Queue: 4 jobs
Job 1
Amino acid sequence: MAKYTIKRLLMAIITLLIVASITFALMNSIPGSPWLSEKTPSQATIDALNEKYGLDQPGIVQLGKYLGNLVQGDMGVSLKMQKNRPVTDIIREMFPLSAKIGFFAILWAIIVGIPLGCLAAYHRGKWVDSVLRVICTIGISMPSFVVASLLLSTFAGKNEALRVFPTIFDASLGFRTYVLPCFALGFYPMCYVARQTRSSMLDALGQDYIKTARAKGLKSGPIIFKHALRNALIPVITYLGPQIAFVFCGGFVVETVFSIPGLGRYFIQSIINRDYPLIMGTTIFLAAFIILMNFLVDVLYKVVDPRIQLEKGDN
Amino acid sequence: MNKEKTNTGKLLEVKDLRVSFFTPAGEVKAVGGISYDLNYGEVMGIVGESGSGKSVEAYSIMGLLQSPGKVIGGSITCDGEDVISKSKEEMSDFRGKKVSMIFQNPMTCLNPVYTIGNQLVEALRAHNKTISKAEAEKKAMEMLELVGINNIEKRMKQYPHEFSGGMRQRVMIAMGLICSPKLLIADEPTTALDVTIQAQILELMKDIQRKTNMGIIFITHNLGVVAEICDKVSVMYAGKIVEQGTVEDIFYRPSHPYTHGLLSSMPRVDAESYERLVPIEGSPVDMLNPPDGCPFAPRCKQCMQVCLNKMPPYVELGGDHRSACWLRVKEQIDNKEEQTNE
């Protein structure tokens, strides 16, 4: 296990270097610069700023310097969004809020999605299954800004009786302010998880060991939740791993609609503003998170299914 | 206490059982009215080709028929209890406790993600709520020992993929027997195993049957297996029992052309090398549109006009031997005429 972890860690570092290089190349290939806004500054000012932040040097030198600093944990300073503030600082400030909302979003997606999937599989072809299928299809095909806007206009709109949640995110309001964003952010994963669970549960329920479990005289509960579900979980875990990383790092749309000062919004705005170090920082952070989740997923596979070997000669 | 119940009398009584599958293409009468008895401690073989309804029949005893299959008539009485009228809840108490089943493919019948010990203990605790975990584990280990598995302590903690096919079938047998059922249904338990392992498993089942005196229904298409282990045999064709009798009756005095066909299509140890196996010509019945008469008539070499029009009645041939064939009916009538002429 230790050897396996070290191997994965080395692979992760290489992956991150590649991600950083590609992001850097893409970022520099798009026109524009961080210094442009409504008023274009004079060429002299631009040159001075470029020199100050090292943007006058050739790309390869800039990348080399950046990677060198990155290894030491230095992601540079923001050029525009929060001028001269270290990128690591910004991430440290923004991430917890996004992660908090993401955590509750994914939590409800799992807690509701998996049982719904089981329910649909167990009642395959019955009305329960049909109703759930419609809901899930809507959830998967509806863009999140539609979901978020619908929620806003219903529960925070003109109708006084239904106006139970605030329109704009305000951390001081506590629990109430989290409900709508968490619901909106978790709706798509919930539907996806339910669909995935349904199809893999159907597969598991058709297996011979379910017949054995029934022949043993087990009741429906243990058959579904002990025997079928554990075998059906692998595809669900596969999906959830990277999805957790994405949701934790903030849904851009949901954070924008609810005006949440989270990382997701910053991620997109940094690209619009050409805030190069911030783009690099948030991208690398997200990539590292996804790599970590994939590692956890692989370890979880082994916990769920003892047949899986993490490396050759394992066991 | 239960002496009269454990030793004599009927363990299982199946009367005119009918099972149909309601498919979009129409009703498939998978089992079309079969009757048989099984006494306590008896081993009965059900023989027939694929699709003859032998597994469906067994699944209806267990209440394991899956939609769109449905028991549409007849009765099943097991150990004095009416099986068909049982509710879902009662059925899951009945399964595994009174009747157990082992299946054809041991490679896929154990849940890959739980240890053998876990699955054995679970089978016991499903029917014995008061037993402690330690006691249940002890009992599970006894069962593993009974089915001839070594190194039990270690084996209990292993997963199915760490067992060979034969070993898994042994585990399945242990699991089926852990609640001491009165009846064990074995649905082709040796089909997926290679020949040497087949012999071992049969030997084991025979041995356990002698020790526990439980009834066994042995479903197979292998007549060799039947000769090895069974007391009596029912031969099924197209959802009907065409011939019933003791092993001797079936092997030495087969009276239905289909049984003849089965026997002559089986390799024999004492055959000369130039002798060829004789297949049964034709193909199995289309169960969606079964013929009016005897289902075997279209493939039968001795087919008569009446065979195509009417299903033959059972003709008693002495003892428990009976057969549904117009040839036997004709013989009987001829015999009677001879007797009256004399």
Job 2
Amino acid sequence: MSTRTAAPAPGRADRRGARQDFVSRNFGVLSISAVLAVLFVFFSVQTDAFLTTNNLVNVARQVAPTVVVAVAMTFVITTGAIDLSVGSILGLTAAALAIVAESGSAVVALVLALVLGLGIGLVNGALTAFGKLQSFIVTLAALTAVRGLALLITDGYSTPITSDFLLPIGNGRLAGLYTPTWIAVVVVAAGWYVFNHTRFGRYVVAVGSNAESLRRAGVDVRRIQLAVLTLTGLAAGLAGVITAARLASGSSNSGTLFELEVITAVVLGGTALMGGKGSIVGSAIGAVTLGVISNGLVLLRVDVYWVPITQGIILIVAILLNAKLFSRITGQRG
Amino acid sequence: MTAGTRDISTPRVEMRGIRKRFGALEVLRGVDLTVGRGEVVGLVGDNGAGKSTLMKMLAGAVVPDSGEIRVDGTALTGSGPRAARAAGIEMVYQDLALCNDVDVAGNLFLGREIHRPLTRRLDHKRMHEEAAKDLATLHIRISDTRQLVATMSGGQRQAIAIARAVTFEPKVLVLDEPTAALAAREVEMTLQLIRDVSSRGVSVVLITHRLQDLFEVADRFVVLYEGVNHRQMTPAETDLGGLVTAMMGR
């Protein structure tokens, strides 16, 4: 076979190349992991409470909604789109779950909340993919309208959840960890598989890299764009369910600024806002990092207003590192 | 003409009365093009004559305003890139159309990735193996099919684009400026490739500014001028000067 003769023997240069390749491809993940490790050590040393099982198990539960939506958001951002409506969808589904569960079946409430999230995502996706509107504008409109809808159906009040079927979704424990943590683990694993090992994942990268190329290769780009925004809608619905179940209450105000936290997590994880490059694992680590910062600062008893300030600074530092170091390490040509 | 010996009544490609308007500009004003089996047609014309647009229509990437496209007698007008590919039409675009953030094998297999039926898992191993094999067959030297296209030179990218078009047994191969970024040796390889595929019965349409290349491989020149068919001639009937004169509309 001609391969044998034509392929050069793997030499030292090739191996070095492979190692460089690994570093450059996973640079985003490696850098955010380093940041997380530093923060982890810092908070462990500076506070007594941080490095305790109880605290870590709690952090793992708190970050779950962000992790779940960040996984879906990674698909969206990798195509070069954005979804600003996830926080509002979270609020609406949390409120709807509580209201329906109170007046009827808990199972129906759960299904309805998820379908609601999926449906809003589908509308976002259809307007973006087939209506040829920018996802930024479409989901900005949804951010406003969906939050309004949530306030409308609740009159601004929160509704308690007492269902024995729903509460374990937020507070149940299995093998030491809370249900939300397990849900997040499953979502990350599934997201990683789909992103890296299926045609859909490949096309998500291709849409963000060169959508026209993918179209010419015979793939319907609009279906990919529709699917990713539907995914974030569904994920936000799931996050709404988790949040409401954990707090034992559905509030139309939950999830305010949640979209920015999710986008921050995704960008921290090395996903390019311009599309074409994304990492599911990076997004998950990014979300955990944000959770660790807010938890650690609270334990340090610094003023709670320092949490967003610190998160903002970490974001800028991470982006600068990515932008400046990344181009140098990978040496990409255009 | 090389295809003359196996004459079959329907031509492989038949484009009739193709029109296309972009805003105020009518790029194509009723163009006809026929390509026989195994025939190499050199499509020439000045910049803006409509060559690339005409070929994008054949590849399904642009929909004509009016006119008819048939491949082996079957209508294919405006049915999209997927249908065109399924009908055996492959095109190397002038702007390459590769995904920078996808690796070499991923670009070769874009749109027709191999995956396991049950788990939907991409068969990365097989795609990389086949990609390496295909590149070697075409004498394209790329040491690692896991490299991202973004890290490669213009010539390498062009080679990948050509490899993608010829690998999947096309019936019609459209090459829009395939040699623009290539060194002399690689140009010669590309021309040899065109001879090889056309001798296997593949129809080729070649657009290039290197007119001397056309004299080496083309069976027939079709000259477009400002969106209409201007001249048609064989290499025996003309020379470089005659071809240039025809391109200028005289």
Job 3
Amino acid sequence: MKRDYQTHVFTSTYTADVSGVCSALYELGGMSVLHDPSGCNSTYSTHDEPRWFDTDSLMYVSGLDEITAVMGDDAVLIRDVVAAARDLNPRFITLCGASIPHIIAFDFRGVAYLIERECGIPVLPVPTDGLKSYVSGVGLALTAWLERFADPAEFAAAPDNAVNLVGVTPLDFSINDNVRMLRAAFADAGFAVNCCMAMGDSFETMTHAFRARVNVVVSSAGRRAARWMKKQCGIPMVEGLPIGAAQTDALLGAVRATLSDGKDRAAWGEFGNTGRYTVPEGGILVIGEEVFAKSLANAINLLPAERRSGLTACPLWPDVDEGMPEEELIAAMRTARTVIADPLYRVVLRPRDGVQFIPFPHEAYSGRIFRAELPAFAGPDFSVEQLLSGR
Amino acid sequence: MYRFAVYGKGGIGKSTTCSALSCAFAEMGLKVMQVGCDPKSDSTLYLHGGERIPTMLDVLREKRERATLDDLICTGYRGIVCAEAGGPTPGLGCAGRGIAAAFEALDERDVFEVVKPDLVLYDVLGDVVCGGFAMPIREGYADRVFIVTSGENMSIYAAANIAMAVENFRNRGYASLGGLILNRRNVPDEREKVQTLADDLHTEILADLPRDDHISDAQDTLRGVMEVYPDCAYAQGIRALARRMLEMGEGQ
């Protein structure tokens, strides 16, 4: 079947890469400049950023207009950013953009260089295009930040039990208790959490990101930064999320094994998918961000068979560039016995499909709509069995 | 790695010059990669026996992220690694954005780490008309920009425009102008006109390539002039130019 990624009748899209950039760097004391007319900025502030009203951060939109774009007049942006930076003196400036700068091949790197030369503040060019998902934006932003401010030489002196949690933003973890519980899951098991990239850690803490023995990639948004760090000094990575007791044990076991042998791992076993969108009939389908979906599916499969009605779970996650082809997604959902997904996916199922739907809100998909219902899922205390019971 | 970009007015002979230069560099024992940045996608035509290779944008449209590096590049005469950016359906889309997308696709596939060329040559369409066509000048793709021109007025105007773009980008830490390549059309006072342009741009004429029928004769056999008539005056001029370009690229 030829995939049609562009026609979506029932389903929505995931948060765009520009919001991922702003979200990843929100707490680090920088100024984020979104080069765009303004639409993407309002989406970010009203839907994608739960900290917007409680935590100050310097977020700007350039207000790009048609004639400036057509004429390639970069001087307007440079002048505005330099003026704002002189007033506010941020630790660093991030320059990202949405689709119009992308289409006119805006020179992120060159303009960043000119702004930095003008005002003496480090400027990170993050060439987003507004077309990819937040996973791309978070990855680009964290990598650009680490590249500029963290020192790979520190890896040599990293404590034996130190780990980083990479890919932590409210887009995947919201602002409920998830991040605290995530840290606690590792601390309680005897690990020292060096950096939680990037929620709850300061600019200074983040500069020591290489003082860790293992990068735990807790969302696919952290994968690019972890791969970059591995390239610099060989720091290995483990992918997985602690969701419930058994999956937490599996992840911690994988991290210990990696601490011992330095090999990359993922904290999940094989799933029954024969193809990306071909899921076993009558199983449990978990839809969401890749590491979350795989971890939750694995957590379900680690339950004794009778406590999951003899069903096995398999994950389905969106492509960073193209989301999901809706027709194949719908076919997969209607084939399952149970679907666990953001509430906005419920509309796909008809009563006659007889599929049980278990809502699991995801900030990067439905934004603020179901924020109050988003469960604190990180750590051993989350009951996967209770989730399956629909209670 | 030497990184050169060759610009010039449409039809002035950029692709012929680039292909001949690639052959000359390859004769010197260098591993060469030539990237055509023109929607016509004919830059490397005569390095492949006159057969068009699939353009990067066509491959990306078909295979999207599943496209591998091997899908995007081909190896031609003397082991020269060839890539053609290609472009949208004529009259539609955005050719400049297409060039940028093709470059990004090569970057994402770590082309220079995998291919490990000693020299990369970008053959770029006409005037610098928008951000996409300026990509080879920007972001470290090319260190030196060379402009092919004849003594015809339109060619000289185009060359001046390109030089202005290079100058604009210089304060961003990008490529600098390497010089002019005079590709003769045998118009009156040709050398003098191009010399005036070189003086205005504070640069020099690096080569004075003769109008040579061997080029079209070779192309009639679907091969390049360096392959078919390696001793003709044009081929010798190209080899001398290649040596000068390498001298200019030293230490980059």
Job 4
Amino acid sequence: MSKKDTENLKDVVNQAIDSQQVVHVKLKDIGQKDVDIDKLTRPSKETHQEYWGRGLSYLAIGLIILLVGSIIGFVGIHGLATFFRDHVNLWQFLSSTDWDPTSGPNHVGALVMIVTSFLVTLLSALVATPFAVAVALFMTEYASKKAASFLQSIIELLVGIPSVVYGFLGLTLVVPVIRAIFGGTGFGILAGMLVLFVMVLPTITSLTVDALNAVPKHFRQASAALGATHWQTIARVVLKVATPRILTAVIFGMARAFGEALAVQMVIGNAVLMPYNLVTPSSTLTSQLTTQIGNTVMGTLANNALWSLALLLLVMSLFFNILVRMIGKKGAK
Amino acid sequence: MENLSPAFITTFEASERALTTEHLDVLYGGTIQKLFDTSLQFKKNSITALIGASGSGKSTFLRSLNRMNDTVATVNGKIMFHGLNVNQANINVYELRKSIGMVFQKPNPFPKSIYDNITYALRADGEKNQQKLATIVEESLRAAALWDEVKDKLNQSALALSGGQQQRLCIARALALRPEIILLDEPASALDPVSTSKLEDTLKQLREKYTMVMVTHNMQQAARISDYTAFFHLGHAIEYDTTTNIFTNPQGAITEAYIQGSFG
């Protein structure tokens, strides 16, 4: 910029200031007299908003904690009454297959329900996981964006179907087929497992999709640059990195299967018999609760025994949660 | 409109060329052209730096050379490697990438042990001979000047290494496949000055055995370690010559402006 240009610029600025086109602030106009000392020391509207906002969220949290606490407390008190008031032996409760609480404290053994619950849960997760991982791999690695989002909406649809519909489908389709193939009634663990398989598949799949998407792209790139095929990359890098989160997905699926009541109750047969094979009627913790809760009187041993089953479900769900956290921590390392 | 025609492009005898591109065009999404009519020859056992402003097409060019752009870009023209066009239909792209390795901007070791990182590709291809693997691990780490720093902790996670060590591990990992050419995409841009200097020493040593093509934003780096430099601008290779000539006597006006720091 030449000297002449600089002079011109000065003139232009001065003119603009004179004609008020530019807000001209004189530095000496800003001083102590402009600072409102009162304002600095007094709570403002924003301060009150802050208190209210924080107060409301603390209140909501407090209520929820109270609610959760009272649920656990209530289930705990009733569930433990079986052992403390009715003097049922805890070991007997966990190891005996004799379930007839109306006949007295010597007939409160929940082993059948415990075994059946675990069996349907483990088997359905075992069968569902490979399919879920395959679907998730297809969605994240192979399918076009369009196909993946289509599959995503189908999975969301499957999640949204009420469990009574799954139970009904199981009752009308699965049970007769099992009856035709294996004989017997068709009710049992196999039917329960097949229904639960369909129910936990979307849960495990969508969480596995998240797990695979969370694998950083640069791992895939590094692998490709080393001449690895897509499949080698998936098998040796992507799945390995995603394993903790996939396990978490499986456990969430198992938690869902373990807690599912209605659909299982419709196909399991509801006979408190030890399952010696997969096609004889049996009973899970949840199905026993849904079928029997209406037949007992509050405060009786039969009722308390059911609360004990509920307590067991609660403890198991806590256990699943802790497991998920432990795996998450290990995966973060 | 600036004059984007090449100012000077150096050439080599056929026997000296490790890799050659002929009239290379690269298009993203089939319509957006990122690289225009680029014909460059890379000399064996030398380091060639690709410099240019952001968006000049140098990374696009680099990634086309071992077909890392396959899923996103269309490549027209030829990339000749041992008399074969790397884009011809019968090329086994996995084997190609073992011959033309790549090191990325951000160090990207796998979340595995140092040992497993280096043996990754070999084991994926079924190599089970532990003794052979151990030899390759040591050779690769020595070549990448990392052996002395990690020889006692080969079974520790590679993620525990510093950024500079991770980047040299990535180089060692590429070396384990005994490539001919190593492509480096701004390998030092995520590193501190001390790590950068170590990495540069490593690259200078590797020149004896390997041909390297390196994208860099750092012109001092290009000047320090490269033998040849190609300057890219808006998807065109403007000038390609010995590094000395590019930095002391550039032919093109744009090259000169870039070297002097007028833009980019």
